[in-house]
Amino acid sequence: MVTVFIPAQLKELTGGITSVEVEASNIRQVVERLEQLFPGIQQRLCDGDDLRSGLQVSIDSVMTSRGLIAKVQPGNEIHFVPAFGGG
Amino acid sequence: MIKNNGNGEYRVLGTRPVRHDGADKVTGKAVYTADVQLPGMLRGFILRSPIAHGLIKSIDTSAAKATPGVHAVITSADMPDVGDKIADLGEGAVNLKYLSGNVLAQDKVLYKGHAVAAVAAVDIHVAEEAANKIIVEYEELPSVTWVLDAMQDDAPLLHDDLHTDSMGAKSENPSNICTHMHFEKGNIEDGFAQCDVVVEREFKTASVHQGYIEPHASVGDWNEDGRLRIWTATQGSFSARQQTAEILQIPIGDVVVTPCEIGGGFGGKIAVYLEPLVGMLSKVSGRPVKISMTRADVFEATGPTPGSYMKVKIGATNDGKLIAGEAWLAYDAGGYPGGMIGPGCMCVFSCYDIEHAVVDGYDVCLNKPNTQAYRAPGATQVAFATEQLVDEIAKQIGMCPLEIRQLNAAKEGTVRVDGPKYPPVGLVECLEALEESDHWKSSLDGPLRGRGIAAGFWFGCGLKSCATVTVNHDGTVNLLEGSTDIGGSRTSLAMQLAEVLGITSDDVNPMVGDTDSVGYTDVTGGSRVTFATGLAAYTAGRDLQTQMISRAAEEVWDCSPDEVTLENDGSFTHNGESKTFKELASQLFKHGEPLVARAAVSPENPTNGFGVHVADVEVDPETGKVTVLRYTTIQDAGKAVHPSYVEGQLQGGTVQGIGWALNEEYFYHDNDTVANASFLDYRMPTMLDLPMIDTIIVEAANPDHPYGVRGVGETPIVPPPAALANAIYNATGTRMEQLPMSPPVLWKQLQSESAEA
Prior knowledge:
Shape of chain B: globular
Number of domains of chain A: 1
Radius of gyration of chain B: 27 Å
Number of helices of chain B: 20
CATH class of one domain in chain B: Alpha Beta
Oligomer: heterodimer
Number of helices of chain A: 3
């Protein structure tokens, strides 16, 4: 199981739940499990077959560049956070 | 077998060799884009909008085209229709309609200086004369340049098809608010209920420009075979290639970008402005075309960093523990969506371990040039707010401002408001260095003098980098990499390769390749190059050593590779016989294939750069002028590869922050056109305005780099406005809530508070 932290702006879809544990081996499956639990959340996180532009995924505080194909392992903590670059 | 030499004792790292590009720079031989000359090259001129907001009713280019010496005139009608499509540009996605529209206005102009048409002619004077013959009929529209005004329902609407995005949900009505972000941590009501002291203030900051000394310039040559070659001043040749290809709707493989030497960027030379235009002008004219911006063009048409409005509230217990924080932030996006509000939200409380927090952020379109990154984009504004409130809490509870920061400093395991936890970071070490510094221990005497401190943070990102290493007959090596060199990175990368191989920095010839010559490399930005491209150089060095072990076993020592040992000094040994890298490389070259190594990396962890600044000031109550008496910048570099460059980054960022704090701002006429588009009127600090910026480099190793390197380029700009505001408060008792804290602003506030008293 991985722990997924629900972005505050999507709590309206989860009835206020802030985190859930799901069975998944990659981020795509994480999103699919979330969609099963909270219908409508997938289209808030994804655009077509990719993460929504401007979003990135943090797995145990590592910002993965691999988007939906990023692997996850039991015990991982998943956050969806704004992408950042710099100057 | 490879022994890990990451023991902290280095031969090359930490030394100060002469930079590889030094001779060319000081003798004037370095080739900047404006120096590029091609046979038959034309010069381009851009006609720009004289108004801040308006519909383009018609454009008549006939007179311009008829001007002798003119070879091409283009408007948006000549550009491909890119559609309403999102393109992934590597470091982020962008709507091509907006990207293209910013390069050449389509149906509307959204700020004064917005490009409307471009001309290529035999020389710049003919091009300018012809451009001035272009007749543009505008329907002028009301404009808006203050972010809170632009958020109102009745504000002039820049894009009637823009709806506010709240993490994938769109507002029903069109709005200038492009994006709303919201973050929560803990329970904010419970948090504030636990506080003994709560402080809250509103702040605003002006638009400021990166102020790089080299104006934007590009040369384009659309060849007969359909390939477009670009020479340009860019922070990212691959990003420039992709943006140009997308805007011109040509295959990315048909564009090659050569990054020329660059006179500063600081985030402002990532977006393309000229590259697609020189490309299209070259296509139409059949000749190479060069365009160089004037300084006024740079100020009026290229990205400033966002002006902002911020309302921030922080609560603490009487013993100094920060418990709760709340922030409401509104940042300028400029004419098109895509500002810096995300990192602003993520950085507002990033220096502190605060259990309960709520942050709302809004990215807002208004009639200013499209905002661009500027060194730690979005972080300096919020630090100006947060760091003053932390001082204010300390004052109210009678605690030293250093002590309250030490008590609450972010450290390994601290959870940021956006969720991720920090790995090992160096803020505590920076605060310790401040406490032990001569500056902090010194006394500051005299009336109207004050000392202020502030902390700052920037993520530092990884992204993609490539490097190729080739070995010469004599064992010297060539390092080909793709990071455009703004701050001396060729040498910092060469030093990391030299450290691996056991050779000197001078034994490495580093070169920044064009997009046909080197593997994909993301922009020089995000404080990433010495870290990420350095990792690529390191990894390529390891690849080379692995090849050499195998070859030495087979061709030199007739043994198994396991029987060859790579020593910490980079030499290779077998049965008591030792060969240096150069000796072995020369031997292998003589009798076998050339040695070539390469690396492609994409490190994913931010490098998390923290810094702490201390400033002493004296305030002249007659004029409001602030004199910076002494300034010390302390920062965790992880490992300072070339300490002089790290010191230079710390000093340069600090000086830019001081300018932002005390003088720099865009002034606007009543019609929302820029009033100070020159360095005479846009007041950047010079050496006459500043003391020596002392630096203290802290080295708390980054666990995600073999040498512990962290990015250092951006963090130094974050604390200065807050440190100076705290110093001004301690000098005068006046709390500053707006940037810049320029003489007229400070003088008026001193007068106002004096009258009230």
